[in-house]
């Protein structure tokens, strides 16, 4: 698995049957939690749709053994997620729209940094989960590309290619938690992704005020010190690099007028 260690920053493999992950000798991680179609129906545009029975697998707190204490000290957590191929009715396979619960240790709704490992992703995000969603972005990313979701924004991770699985890693706050109520009250986020002729098209959710959707590609986040290396390797090289994830208050000025 040495090649995967170079690609991902830590020694692990992606498994399909059953869906999940394999960990190298120096890597620790939990058994993945499987999200089934029945569990996420309430968040879908068509709750009665057909799709893969097992939609995605998620493993939170994956780490090299020698990094665990440093991660706990810095209140950081690394998660990995893999999606099934296919669609959920007319929708692509995706996560449930949510915002991050405010962390007690920082007093902020924490940001999240994604890195795509396999497949093609759209990280959809909107400024607010109120009637006026504010600015809305769909960031299209491929293997090795990074996408940063700022504090307090509603978001979802979407598979942009139904023909292949999607896998990604992400840096999160160790005190992570998901809030779904505001999104579910609006019957989802402000834009629904739909699959049409193997392409993603967007339909506005009329439970929100009219809003413009900007479809973009990832940019370098140089102001946060992020490089092109795998994001776990960047932590190994500089454990303080991702402190802005667990302590976004320390970089408060960088979140003002943030553009993905």
Automatic annotation (TrEMBL):
Reactions mediated catalytically: alpha-D-glucose 6-phosphate = beta-D-fructose 6-phosphate
Broad class of enzyme this protein falls into: isomerase
The enzyme's E.C. designation: 5.3.1.9
Signal peptide residue numbers: none
Cross-referenced Pfam families: GPI
GO MF annotations in UniProt: glucose-6-phosphate isomerase activity
Pathway: Carbohydrate degradation; glycolysis; D-glyceraldehyde 3-phosphate and glycerone phosphate from D-glucose: step 2/4
GO biological process: gluconeogenesis; glycolytic process
Keywords noted in UniProt: Gluconeogenesis, Glycolysis, Isomerase
Cellular compartments per GO CC: cytoplasm
Domain Glucose-6-phosphate isomerase prokaryote: 54-209
Recorded family membership: Belongs to the archaeal-type GPI family.
Protein name: glucose-6-phosphate isomerase
